[in-house]
């Protein structure tokens, strides 16, 4: 086991979606068209926020889902119910994605339940606001990298032997990778690493018919920010600095993950999509 324990006592992260008011909008907005019929997806951080919206949309499009999460049993159970209401199967897998052994468990349990893996969505992440770089402890720095980028490496390594031609990997980076963020120095650094990982992994796997892409959301209303991931000052005007003047909703981001997972994106790899409220990042 790693010496870097989840930072669940410093703040309220990851946070319960069930306690948010207003509730994030996860509901798919259109009828499905079987774009993921017969597929199996592993989605980390699928208990709430963007991950829940992606799970709901993938299920509507015909996929069975492995819901990976850290702590929130009630939120994970609700996501499972949502998937099953779409007529698909779901399992919940609780643990710390920063641990290599947990990645092996995710893959083993997914294969046991569904017999295959077609899509890996590396969505889970954590952030901790700090106004000065000297406020970032070594433990926090290691923990943020452990979750946000090490976890992606571990899960891809575990899943790789089971991914066949036509499989897709989608990583969640962030607008902060392109714009920077004065209060999220360690988080932004991990998102830069994720973008580089996405592009390099794409080059590594493309000849085997496995596509690797990423999504870089802007400010999205999920438990991440109001449950300790943003300062109170930032929350007062959360998302209002975007050209659209508001934060986005999870179901406005999930379609980007669907596009990159299905055959509509068959000629795309190593790319990043930007559902960010109109911010131009030129990346």
UniProtKB/TrEMBL annotation:
Its name, as the record gives it, is SDR family oxidoreductase
Alphabetized GO MF terms:
oxidoreductase activity, acting on CH-OH group of donors
Catalyses which reaction? 2,5-dichlorocyclohexa-2,5-dien-1,4-diol + NAD(+) = 2,5-dichlorohydroquinone + NADH + H(+)
Superkingdom assignment? Bacteria
Q: Where is this region: Disordered?
A: 1-25
Comp. bias (Basic and acidic residues): 8-20
Which UniProt key words apply to this protein?
Oxidoreductase
Q: Which organism is it from?
A: Sphingobium terrigena
| Family stated for the protein in its record | Belongs to the short-chain dehydrogenases/reductases (SDR) family.
């Amino acid at each position: 086991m790693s010496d870097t324990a989840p930072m669940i006592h410093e703040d309220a992260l990851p946070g319960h979606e069930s306690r948010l008011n207003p509730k994030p909008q996860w509901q798919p907005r259109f009828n499905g068209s079987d774009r993921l019929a017969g597929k199996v997806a592993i989605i980390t951080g699928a208990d709430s926020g963007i991950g829940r919206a992606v799970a709901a949309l993938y299920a509507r499009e015909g996929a069975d889902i492995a819901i990976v999460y850290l702590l929130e049993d009630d939120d994970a159970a609700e996501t499972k119910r949502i998937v099953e209401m779409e007529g698909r199967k779901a399992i919940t897998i609780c643990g710390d994605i920063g641990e290599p052994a947990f990645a092996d468990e995710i893959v083993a349990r997914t294969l046991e339940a569904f017999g295959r893996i077609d899509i890996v969505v590396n969505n889970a992440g954590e952030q901790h606001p700090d106004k000065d770089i000297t406020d970032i402890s070594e433990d926090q720095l290691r923990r943020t990298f452990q979750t946000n980028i090490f976890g992606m490496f571990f899960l891809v390594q575990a899943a790789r032997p089971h991914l066949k031609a036509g499989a897709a990997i989608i990583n969640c980076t962030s607008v902060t990778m392109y714009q920077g963020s004065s209060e999220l120095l360690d988080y932004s650094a991990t998102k830069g690493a994720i973008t580089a990982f996405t592009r390099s992994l794409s080059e590594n796997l493309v000849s085997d018919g496995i596509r690797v892409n990423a999504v870089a959301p802007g400010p999205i209303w999920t438990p991440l920010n109001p449950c300790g991931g943003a300062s109170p000052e930032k929350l007062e005007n959360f998302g209002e600095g975007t050209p659209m003047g508001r934060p986005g909703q999870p179901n406005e981001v999930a379609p980007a993950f669907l596009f990159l997972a299905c055959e509509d994106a068959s000629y795309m790899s190593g790319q990043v999509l930007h559902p960010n409220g109109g911010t131009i990042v030129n990346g």
